[in-house]
């Protein structure tokens, strides 16, 4: 959820600092404090409020107020909703020239790890002369171990509080009131949406909750879902490049998955990058663009025209002259209607305003063809309404006085049943088809919680149009009642019931920042057609196969992850891998370990048993296998460092991995040395002494500018490169006397560096210790 800061005007109206209390030093007090406007609970599991709140008012009378000692002062403990609370004040201000006041969790130090509780509350300093001037401020907060108190650092100026004529300090007594409403929470850490409701949610990519609420609404229009399933796609299509396939995949998973579904493939098919997923887009625009793209993709298919059949209605824009016989009509189609919220008490009032007649007269007369300027009536009437009526509520408007966008949180009611034939069809044109009954039932309510600069979106939906509503809030789906879906989304102000009336009976009110911004109605006469059955027969076979395979792979990976601690991944590199990679993917270094054969082996399995598995895989007898451990060198390359000793091969795979792997990950990297006899069959590896050095050779052909792996040799430390020139020529396919030069790879960052090797010096003198060597053709060396 995106946190919001108030607009400049909102800050002027409510300038207190709404923060956890902080005991600031004098130096700290000179620094500006961070202001956090907490108008909506954060979108965490704990912040959901499925039950009605328990409310209580606490009155704290502080006598001898001016003689209160100490920087801060606590009230007695009071209990609301089974939780202990108290009020905390700073009589001289928390390093500000205002009274500072907070609501505090009284027993926060004794609560279990991870505790959390959510409360709406108001704090007040009662005016004992004129109650109507009582200073009261309200907010809401998710209390936890890090923020166990919350309130107002700048509650009211100290100059007003301590002025006896103002009525707040009378007979050296101050009266504090706290009204607290606590909502009980569901434990969502163990909550299973599919098990509890039969439905699953959609994962939020960062700021895609607005898209999730729209997608859930469209998915739960079965006729729309069936049409999406019947759009032609092929097994060669990729979801990330095809909106129809991505939407089919998403809908299939929503229908058959047990867990929340990701939307990344769909957003990629939109052409969005990661940044776009963290930007809130306009819901109405997204709805239109998505429907237009689907409409285009449906052309020429069995589902052509589905979007129009479901969502398209028509209205007539007319201008009718009053004094002459002239009328101008223009027919327009719509997929959704934008209805005014400001100045309208409900949906019917918005429709009244929509078809309101405007008089064109005076300086605003209408220029009628052949009749000149004429007084006229201008308006809109509906020719027909669609089976699925989408109403966009204009909750966001531009305020010209404030020169900014604002959110309209006014109360706005919408009915469970909407009759657009009321008052003899006053919204319809005279030639509209009156045989169609325009009686609609509410299917879904899309909600925005927050302010103009950000917030959170979720949806209340009746998937079967029964009395049971469900709240689709990203990954989480919960059962809700009609009151939650309708009345609590009207907006306006909420007044919590008074449980313990005290000194001041002023009701506890707060602005509701969560309210409906889009409504979806389904026409009663089309209900059976639209709320049709959708099953696997409607899903293309290639899609079922693809998605079932994806699900199986997902379950397999999930199982592997759960059992990962029982297994070790052994990555085995062979000469064949070096030949395959060097000169193609690898130039400096020997091999990319991510592209070699992996074995997933139980940790307790003896390494010698693993060798038997290798024998089956490659046809290499156990006695012909010699495994080397890889070592990472200072230049960030890997070399086979030493062969495994017999006692190491007798250990378990897990023990060997722990000994050899300093990074302590689940991998064991090995090089398999296999020697071939004259018949090219594997033979037992030769004995290796301390004087033997294993060298790897690459050949660079400057004429073709090619690099390739030619093989490896054991050499004696006291031997010289000149001793193996004939053998190297044989490995390279050259004549025995071909002149070649030898170079050693040193480093490749920041630039590749190779050092020339003196063929007359011994390998030990050249400090070539089990390192690989580049082989160059000498005759063309000068052209490098």
UniProtKB/TrEMBL annotation:
Organism: Aegilops tauschii subsp. strangulata
EC numbers: 3.4.19.12
Ranges for region Disordered: 1-56
Domain MATH: 55-180
One Gene Ontology term, aspect cellular component: cytosol
GO MF, any single term: cysteine-type deubiquitinase activity
Official protein name in the record: Ubiquitin carboxyl-terminal hydrolase
GO BP terms, alphabetized: protein deubiquitination; proteolysis; regulation of protein stability
Reported function: Recognizes and hydrolyzes the peptide bond at the C-terminal Gly of ubiquitin. Involved in the processing of poly-ubiquitin precursors as well as that of ubiquitinated proteins.
InterPro entries: MATH/TRAF_dom (IPR002083), Papain-like_cys_pep_sf (IPR038765), Peptidase_C19 (IPR050164), Peptidase_C19_UCH (IPR001394), TRAF-like (IPR008974), USP (IPR028889), USP7_ICP0-binding_dom (IPR024729), USP_CS (IPR018200)
Pfam families referenced in this protein's UniProt entry, alphabetically: MATH_2 (PF22486), UCH (PF00443), USP7_ICP0_bdg (PF12436)
Catalytic activity: Thiol-dependent hydrolysis of ester, thioester, amide, peptide and isopeptide bonds formed by the C-terminal Gly of ubiquitin (a 76-residue protein attached to proteins as an intracellular targeting signal)
The family this protein is said to belong to: Belongs to the peptidase C19 family.
Keywords: Hydrolase, Protease, Thiol protease, Ubl conjugation pathway
Bias kind Polar residues: ranges: 1-10, 39-56
PROSITE patterns in the cross-refs: MATH, USP_1, USP_2, USP_3
Ranges where the USP domain occurs: 200-524
């Amino acid at each position: 959820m995106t946190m919001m800061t108030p607009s400049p005007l909102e800050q002027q109206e409510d300038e207190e600092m709404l923060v956890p209390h902080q005991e600031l030093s004098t130096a700290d007090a000179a620094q500006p404090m961070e202001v956090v406007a907490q108008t909506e609970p954060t979108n965490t599991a704990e912040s959901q409020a499925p039950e009605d709140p328990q409310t209580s008012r606490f009155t704290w009378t502080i006598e001898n107020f001016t003689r209160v000692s100490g920087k801060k002062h606590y009230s007695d403990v009071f209990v609301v909703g089974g939780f202990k609370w108290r009020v905390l004040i700073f009589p001289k201000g928390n390093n500000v020239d205002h009274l500072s006041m907070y609501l505090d969790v009284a027993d926060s130090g004794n609560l279990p790890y991870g505790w959390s509780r959510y409360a709406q509350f108001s704090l007040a300093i009662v005016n004992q002369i004129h109650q109507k001037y009582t200073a009261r401020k309200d907010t809401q907060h998710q209390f936890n171990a890090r923020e166990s108190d919350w309130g107002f650092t700048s509650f009211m100026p100290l100059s007003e509080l301590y002025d006896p004529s103002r009525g707040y300090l009378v007979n050296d007594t101050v009266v504090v009131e706290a009204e607290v409403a606590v909502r009980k929470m569901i434990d969502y850490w163990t909550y299973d949406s599919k098990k509890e409701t039969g439905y699953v949610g959609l994962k939020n990519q960062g700021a895609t909750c607005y898209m999730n609420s729209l997608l859930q609404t469209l998915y739960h229009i079965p006729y729309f879902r069936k049409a999406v399933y019947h759009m032609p796609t092929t097994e060669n299509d990729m979801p990330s490049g095809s909106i129809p396939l991505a939407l089919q995949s998403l809908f299939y998973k929503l229908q058959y998955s047990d867990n929340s579904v990701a939307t990344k493939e769909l957003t990629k098919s939109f052409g969005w990058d990661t940044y776009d997923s963290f930007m809130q887009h306009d819901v109405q625009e997204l709805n239109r663009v998505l429907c237009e793209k689907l409409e285009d993709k449906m052309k020429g298919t069995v589902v052509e025209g589905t979007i129009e059949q479901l969502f398209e209605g028509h209205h007539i824009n007319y201008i009718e002259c009053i004094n002459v016989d002239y009328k101008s009509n223009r027919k327009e189609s719509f997929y959704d209607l934008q209805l005014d919220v400001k100045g309208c008490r409900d949906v019917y009032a918005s429709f009244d305003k929509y078809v309101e007649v405007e008089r064109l007269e005076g300086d605003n007369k209408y220029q009628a063809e052949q009749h000149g300027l004429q007084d006229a009536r201008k308006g809109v009437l509906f020719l027909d309404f669609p089976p699925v009526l989408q109403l966009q509520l204009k909750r966001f408007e531009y305020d010209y006085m404030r020169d900014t966008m604002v959110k309209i949180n006014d109360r706005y009611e919408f009915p469970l049943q909407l009759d657009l034939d009321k008052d003899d069809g006053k919204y319809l044109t005279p030639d509209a088809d009156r045989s169609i009954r325009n009686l609609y039932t509410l299917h879904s309510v899309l909600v925005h919680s927050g302010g103009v600069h950000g917030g959170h979106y979720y949806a209340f939906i009746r998937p079967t149009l029964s009395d049971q509503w469900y709240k689709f809030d990203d990954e989480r789906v919960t059962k809700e009642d009609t009151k939650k879906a309708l009345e609590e989304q009207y907006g306006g102000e909420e007044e919590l019931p008074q449980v313990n009336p005290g000194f001041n009976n002023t009701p506890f009110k707060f602005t509701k920042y969560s309210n409906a911004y889009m409504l979806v109605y389904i026409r009663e006469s089309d209900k059976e057609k639209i709320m049709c059955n959708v099953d696997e027969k409607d899903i293309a076979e290639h899609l079922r196969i693809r998605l079932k395979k994806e699900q199986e792979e997902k379950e397999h990976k999930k199982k592997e992850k759960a059992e990962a601690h029982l297994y070790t991944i052994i990555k085995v590199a062979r000469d064949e891998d070096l030949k395959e990679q060097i000169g193609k993917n690898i130039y400096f270094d020997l091999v990319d370990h991510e592209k070699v054969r992996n074995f997933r082996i139980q940790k307790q399995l003896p390494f010698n048993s693993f060798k038997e598995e290798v024998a089956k895989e490659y046809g290499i007898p156990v006695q012909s296998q010699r495994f080397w451990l890889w070592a990472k060198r200072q230049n960030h390359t890997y070399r086979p460092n030493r062969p495994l000793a017999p006692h190491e091969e007798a250990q378990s795979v897990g023990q060997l991995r722990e000994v050899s792997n300093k990074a302590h990950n689940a991998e064991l990297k090995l090089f398999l040395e296999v020697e071939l006899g004259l018949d090219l069959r594997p033979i037992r590896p030769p004995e290796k002494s301390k004087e033997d050095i294993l060298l790897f050779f690459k050949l660079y052909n400057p004429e073709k500018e090619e690099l390739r792996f030619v093989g490896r040799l054991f050499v004696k430390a006291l031997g010289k490169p000149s001793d193996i020139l004939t053998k190297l020529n044989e490995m390279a396919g050259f004549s025995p006397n071909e002149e070649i030069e030898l170079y050693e790879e040193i480093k490749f960052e920041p630039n590749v560096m190779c050092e020339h090797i003196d063929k007359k010096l011994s390998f030990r003198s050249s400090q070539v210790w089990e390192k690989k060597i580049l082989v160059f053709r000498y005759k063309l060396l000068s052209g490098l």
